[in-house]
Amino acid sequence: MKTDNKALSLHSAIIDKVKGSGMNVDLDEALEICGAGKYQVFHCALMVAILGAAMLEMIGCSFILPAAACDLDLSNSIKGIITSIPNIGVIITAPFWGRAADTFGRKPVLLFTSLVSGIICLTAAFMPGLLSFALCKLLGSLFLSCPSSLGFAYTGEMIPKRRRDLALMICNAFLMFVASLCPIIAWGVLSYDWWNSPLRLRQWRVLTVMYVAPLILAALWLTQAQESPKFLMMKGKHQDALDVLKHIYASNSGCSKDNFCVRSLKISEEDSVKSSSDGNCEVGNKIMANSVFALLRPPHVNWLALTGFLMFGLFSLLNGLFLFTPDTVNKVMTYPSDKSVTICMLMNQSGNSTSSDNCVDMISYRTFSITVVTSLINGILVMLVSLSPLTKKTSLIGMFVLVGVACLVSAITTNRIIAGVSMSALQLTALGIGPLTAYSVELFPTSLRATAVGAVLMFGRIGSVVGANVSGIFLAGACTAIFYIFSALLFRE
């Protein structure tokens, strides 16, 4: 009740200020008057849908590739390359799409990239061979950078400042459940015999369609969203920004747009500086160059190296070794002998062979049971920890220790259930992304913050590519070493 009274008092104070200033306020004050209501819920749900759809497309290969192993003649090393393709595309195009969103607008760029990426990746489901499938995935990933990241900025620009952090935290927590949908969708699709159905399709092709369909649907849903008023103000389109705010106000309050008390918007000093640099390419490029050079000098380079190394390690495990979990656990669960063996003993026996005599492209019921249950539990745990009052340092240390133990247990245990659960627990690495990103924000001054956070996240994407390829190459030949190396890195971090 006290919180509600404070919020009401703040809202009333802002309205009084507006009336006293001739209905001329800056954007943050105007958003406070609009309030946080139906439109923000709609917009947050839409952004979670787009971010989640992009996530499904990126991690879906962990179930598609085991099911396509025989049809596409996939070895572990090839699986590593295909798994890393989405991150390669994101790394190549991230600066371009970020600049495009700042130039042409959040909504049109996000709509275009989501739709084009979805259509190209949908085409991959019907490609006849490995090369054409991989090329379609690569082309689709060139447009995936925008839907996989822009949603957070787009969300923040629609939320009143005092509720922004909470809204983004809740959105991030809900995204943790999207990863849980990945094995559930795979279970539903791969459990049905599509080849003997009227569609006459291989199961992995249907699964590819199911993973990319949400991205296309989310892009169509995006047509109902409003452009960011922040972007419109930066481009000098004050009346268009005011029209967006009137729409938000009407959606939240149920009142007419004419009742919105703000009649004009003024640009803040901070936005004025940004607008002038964006409008002058020479000035903007000079500012960017100065930021890069400043990051490469002490003491900032030390913090950049530390946070970059940690983010590299997190993503190399989360988007590298962890994405081989379904395939690896499936080999353990379908091993015909009752003899007690470790994961690595099985991987060393199978090698890279995909011949018709020993190629297995069916995922067992026990594999799905383990991955689905552990994904749900891990998703709930990540969400609870993300919303808990634990400090960033405690969360990071706890995550490193827990995942390090899980990685070590995966390599040495001969119990199949424990091995499957331990390897599935590598998903808990996601716990470290939020605190580490927050540290990146705190460690650098405002003038370098955006460049520094972008650089740290780029280290993470590079880690995804390296982790996927290294895991794919060495799981069959040096499996034990891979698990021990990842465990040592986790305990060291």
UniProtKB/TrEMBL annotation:
Segments forming domain Major facilitator superfamily (MFS) profile: 41-493
Record-annotated membrane-spanning stretches: 41-65, 77-97, 109-126, 132-154, 166-192, 204-223, 303-324, 363-387, 394-412, 472-491
Pfam family, one: MFS_1
Cellular component terms per the entry's GO annotation: membrane
SUPFAM superfamilies: MFS general substrate transporter (SSF103473)
Keywords: Membrane, Transmembrane, Transmembrane helix, Transport
Subcellular location: Membrane
An example Gene Ontology molecular-function term: transmembrane transporter activity
Cross-referenced PROSITE patterns: MFS (PS50850)
Record keyword Secreted present: no
Membrane topology type: Multi-pass membrane protein
Designated name of the protein: Major facilitator superfamily (MFS) profile domain-containing protein
Gene source species: Euphydryas editha
